[in-house]
């Protein structure tokens, strides 16, 4: 059956993946209220198209920072763990597909392929020879280990660090409890978390530690470890966006971890306008959660995002067709965004503004 949409890819991924793996990818915390609300929030907004505005071709490129090479499109791969659960090529396949599309890959620290191998695959596949890669980090209580990870990411050509700050403890996911899914199956592990031992051989992967003891000082600490731009992922409150500004981060990443951490947290699209208001263009804003269509991307851009992260949608592509599936999902979303821009009379993302959206009275069923 041909795939018309991300929804079709999800259906096929569900058919192919073992139940526990599908549930790990698809699931959220507790009652999954936030998980569902992320996607529903897009239906609470309507697009308000403008007519007869010439836009024979649309420019989807976006620059997040001054003097930074633009991204080919405002759709980026949110960091997601364990790609080899979805497909044997794992993050290598994802990296190649994203690099070929000139799309940014935010690589999870919990990757099932080592970050150096991911970077090599991405740079080898990029048409320019230089892929766009950021590294997602859970700061570890062992700061020396954290610093070594950052140095490896720098050496491999990653261009920014994304510190995930929504996980002082790990969210409790009912589906994983029911399925008894608490660890990677034999043969797979978090390869980035291995380090050379005294004998030069790689040691076992270090477990990821979460810490509820962290404060804003970790941002300042990490800054001393690197000259890479720092992006804070997991911001939901305008007051925290202002604190992020004070701590001189380079971008704000609005996320509730795809509904996998605090159930009952708001849908990301619902907090975006208030955060965009206080940030007032001083920093780029990324947002993720529930993006399944190019029109979702357009709504997020209209409400103040500069780029939009996509998590599960790409995993469904990877599970269904490997790297080709990742490429297919990206192409679908890109094409849908391009069409939506044309139908709204916009020839570039600069023309996308809050005037393009209005509230819808009833969420669609
Ligand atoms: C299977 C899975 C694994 C994830 N792993 C990570 C991770 O390692 N680090 C992180 O910061 N976020 C992680 N996330 C959260 C994503 O970065 C992102 O916030 C979320 O997937 C966005 O929602 P969406 O899946 O609806 O697009 C994960 C999400 C999923 C679904
Ligand atoms: C391995 C986990 C740390 C990955 C994660 O962030 C998640 O499952 O949401």
From TrEMBL:
Top-rank lineage group of the source organism: Bacteria
SUPFAM superfamilies reported for this sequence: FMN-linked oxidoreductases
Record has Protease as a keyword: no
Cofactor: FMN
Coiled coil stretches, renumbered: none
Domain FMN hydroxy acid dehydrogenase, residue spans: 1-362
Pfam family, one: FMN_dh
PROSITE patterns assigned to the protein according to its UniProt record, in alphabetical order: FMN_HYDROXY_ACID_DH_1, FMN_HYDROXY_ACID_DH_2
Key words of the record: Flavoprotein, FMN, Oxidoreductase
InterPro entries for the chain: Aldolase_TIM, Alpha-hydoxy_acid_DH_FMN, FMN-dep_DH, FMN_HAD, FMN_hydac_DH_AS
PANTHER family per UniProt: 2-HYDROXYACID OXIDASE 1, S -2-HYDROXY-ACID OXIDASE-RELATED
Record-stated family: Belongs to the FMN-dependent alpha-hydroxy acid dehydrogenase family.
Protein name: Alpha-hydroxy-acid oxidizing protein
Organism, as annotated: Pendulispora albinea
